[in-house]
Amino acid sequence: MVRKAIEGGGKDLGPGELLALQAGVYRYSEAVDLSAKLVDRATSGVKTVLQGQ
After folding, report:
1. Could you read off the pLDDT of 30-49 as tens digits, one per residue?
2. Where are the domains of the chain?
């Protein structure tokens, strides 16, 4: 859907489609942010364990 909006898709998107696009992008960015936080915490945990040895 994002690609379709970027490329134009041959038509204008309506308000409902734009809201759906915004919600999808928001969900994707939240998932990426959560993944980054999980990796950061895992890295921090490994670092702590290695420093303790």
Report:
1. 999 999 999 999 999 999 99
2. 2-52
CB neighbour burial string for 10-31, b if at least 16 within 10 angstroms, e if fewer: eeeeeeeeeeeeeeeeeeeeee
Separation between Cα atoms, residue 33 and residue 9, nearest integer Å: 29
- Cα dihedral value 28, 13, 19, 2, nearest 10: 0
Q: What is the pTM of this model?
A: 0.68
How far apart are alpha carbons 20 and 14 in whole angstroms? 10
